[in-house]
Design goal:
The chain is of the alpha+beta class. The protein is globular and about 55 Å long. Helices cover 37% and strands 19% of the residues.
């Protein structure tokens, strides 16, 4: 009885989150988002075959996989969901929230057939490996262990629409869009030991008309979060 109530409550919470995340999408896309969220939770896996199996549809499994795969390939869906995640997460960003910018990489050293595999520098090992570049923004409260994901993007210099790092980081509603100039305390991870983010990115994060980053206005505790360095963005 208790398990049934817990299951019903979790399902209701998942449905509510799915509706908020997919707001503005056509009905088939909203259904896809809900099925993906449910499938990942039910199967505890992100492989399409596992997600499709957890849906238990009365059609051949390969048909379900094909449908999910087609929906995943929709570029407009990816852009919409990324913007919604940022908008929903922004409600929990306050004046003293630390916004951690991680310009890092994802190693795929055993991959052979993934699209546009790049050569990335792994700063922790000092080696070059196959993989993708990563841009990620996470909100962290100083006096809490809770984190809020705001933005994440993988990109490759081998992709035909690459156009340079600045375009990847600042274009398409990323750091140059709803995240630019936010009032939290910006910090960044050190990609390959670099002491500063790219200058164009630093300027975008401090862009007017939103409040730029006042270095002296923070409490010492707000700047002492492990693994985060204070972003002194250029004027």
């Amino acid at each position: 009885m208790v398990d049934s109530k817990v299951g019903s409550r979790l399902k209701a919470q998942l449905s509510k989150f799915s509706l908020e995340l997919s707001e503005g999408l056509p009905r088939p896309s909203r259904k896809f988002v809900q099925q993906m969220l449910y499938g990942i939770q039910a199967s505890q896996d992100v492989k399409l075959s596992s997600i499709a199996r957890s849906l238990q549809e009365k059609i051949p499994l390969i048909k379900t996989e094909d449908r999910l795969s087609r929906n995943l390939a929709e570029e407009e869906l990816e852009i919409h969901l990324a913007e919604r995640v940022t908008r929903l997460g922004s409600r929990r960003v306050g004046y003293d929230t630390v916004l951690s910018l991680d310009l890092s990489d994802v190693r795929k050293e055993y991959a052979r057939k993934m699209e546009y595999l790049d050569r990335v520098w792994d700063g922790s090992t000092g080696e070059v490996h196959a993989g993708y570049w990563l841009c990620e923004v996470t909100a962290v409260e100083v006096r809490s262990s809770e984190i809020v994901p705001l933005y994440q993007k993988l990109y490759s210099s081998e992709a035909p629409d690459y156009g340079g790092e600045n375009l990847q980081l600042l274009g398409g509603g990323g750091l140059g869009g709803p995240l630019a100039g936010w009032g939290g305390a910006w910090g960044w991870g050190r990609r390959g030991g670099a002491a500063r983010p790219p200058r164009a990115v630093a300027r975008a994060l401090a862009a007017p008309p939103r409040r730029a980053l006042p270095v002296a206005a923070r409490s010492p505790e707000a700047l002492a979060r492990p693994g985060i360095e204070r972003c002194r963005c250029p004027k």
